[in-house]
Amino acid sequence: MQQISDYELELMKVIWNNDGTALYAEIVSALSAKGMDWTKNTIITLLSRLIDKGLLKTNKIGHRNRYTAIVSAGEYQASQTETFLDKVYEGNAKGLVSTLIQKDLLSPSDYEDLMTYWQSIKKQV
User: Fold this and answer.
1) CA 91 to chain centre
2) Which secondary-structure segment (H or E) carries 67?
């Protein structure tokens, strides 16, 4: 999956948070609520880039465009996590988890929750 800029990611978050689809006006409204008053040209350019990168598609509704995510937030997060893991930790997930624990980014409670989650997944297999 192609990398996207931080600004493109903000647009994707708006669309993902709107059940994966949004009209331009809904995007502008959501960005404004976050204090991001971007120009129309900036938003249209970023949306076009996301379409070109295969993350969004557009459908005409009268004179308006509805933007729909082709990639879910979960798919994007998984892809970016794998890329990060390969780039920074050479694919060593244990190294990543060790860092999270050492830097107190993963609490004992988080660890217990993950173990419970892992056990439930093992039972399903």
Assistant:
1) 21
2) strand 64-69
- What is the value of pTM for the model shown? 0.85
DSSP letter, residue 111 = H
- Provide the β-strand partners of residue 105: none
Give the residue extent of every domain in the chain.
6-69, 73-124
Task: Report d(CA 25, CA 30) in Å as an integer.
Answer: 9
CATH class of 6-69: mainly alpha
> How far is residue 9's CA from residue 47's CA, in Å, rounded to a whole number?
10
pLDDT in tens, 10-19: 999 999 999 9
CA distance 20 to 10: 13
**pLDDT at 125 > cutoff 80:** no
H or E element in which residue 42 lies: helix 40-52
